[in-house]
Amino acid sequence: MFELRLLCPEERVEAVGDALEALDALSVSVEDADAQTPAEQALFGEPGMPPPKEGWQRSLVVALFTEEAQAREAAQLLQPQDFFQGCKLLGIQAVPDQDWVRLTQSQFEPVEITPTFWIVPSWHEPPAGARQVIRLDPGLAFGTGTHPTTRMCLRWIARHAPAGQRVLDYGCGSGILAIGAAKHGAAQVDAVDIDEAAVRSTEANAQANGVQLTAGLPERAKGRYDSVLANILATPLKVLAPLLASHVAPGGALVLAGILARQAQELKDAYEPYCQLDVSDEEDGWILMTAKL
Ligand SMILES: C[S@@+](CC[C@H](N)C(=O)[O-])C[C@H]1O[C@@H](n2cnc3c(N)ncnc32)[C@H](O)[C@@H]1O
């Protein structure tokens, strides 16, 4: 692979990027040409505010090509164009071969939920002492155990070991909570999501983990469950309050995540007609709220 490196003023970046893509660049990346210098510019605003400006004053534009000849031809075609005015060709250089798969994989390590309960990517050996292991690779659906909300739900499952129970994972994503419950002995597990891709991902992950569960769209959730887990977000959790509460069997547990610490009271209020929610775990500003019905 060969990369063509260009320096472009802010107003030229879009046209040059589009032209490079039209010239069959495999990828085009843009970064602040003044990064790591006193002239570096931040392009993010205060929370809730727009960014101070759309682009950097000077951008380093890097286009990747399979062949050196393609990179040279792109440079020759770009230089006489009107929209190239003010831009500068920095050079063409070979990109050393990398094992990209290995590099990506090396960023995903096994995740410890408890000393005996781990989430382990397929390319790793489970750590010694792991008794319940969820095999899961980063994929399209949310839930690979790297987010605090998922970890808190899994910790709850490990602590409350739902052996023999009927469990509902509402908003299953990758199916990680449903699989975790099955690995802890749940007798029947239903996993539902509004996203069809999540349903397919859950089915595939359940099979890869050798566990039985039923995955489907939300209407697949039927009747009452001993434990209902929902890691969504505060707003949908509030809307879903009557529905989720109606799926919990008398004496059963409701476990909600995806809630920021400052949203605790709103959630308590929304569920007050059905149960008393309490904060039972906290990690990185996220809370786990649970109730017995
Ligand atoms: C934050 S992910 C959680 C995934 C996984 N359960 C976990 O704990 O990592 C939330 C999931 O809820 C799904 N979702 C969002 N709103 C929903 C709704 N109203 N009903 C069912 N699923 C919903 C999303 O498609 C997404 O897969």
From TrEMBL:
Provide the leader sequence positions: none
Keyword annotations of the record: Cytoplasm, Methyltransferase, Ribonucleoprotein, Ribosomal protein, S-adenosyl-L-methionine, Transferase
For the ligand (S-adenosyl-L-methionine), the binding residues are 150, 171, 193, 231
Q: Sorted alphabetically, which InterPro entries does this protein's record hold? A: Ribosomal_L11_MeTrfase_PrmA, Ribosomal_PrmA_MeTrfase, SAM-dependent_MTases_sf
Q: Name one GO biological process term.
A: methylation
Catalyzed reactions per annotation:
L-lysyl-[protein] + 3 S-adenosyl-L-methionine = N(6),N(6),N(6)-trimethyl-L-lysyl-[protein] + 3 S-adenosyl-L-homocysteine + 3 H(+)
Where would you find this protein in the cell? Cytoplasm
A molecular function annotated in GO for this UniProt entry is: protein-lysine N-methyltransferase activity
Pfam families to which the protein is assigned, alphabetical? PrmA
**Recorded GO CC terms:** cytosol; ribosome
Q: What is its main location?
A: cytoplasm
Domain of life of the native organism: Bacteria
Which EC number(s) does the record attach to this protein? 2.1.1.-
Per its UniProt record, what HAMAP family does this chain match?
Methyltr_PrmA
Family classification: Belongs to the methyltransferase superfamily. PrmA family.
Its annotated function is as follows: Methylates ribosomal protein L11.
What this protein is called in its record is Ribosomal protein L11 methyltransferase
Protein source organism: Ramlibacter monticola
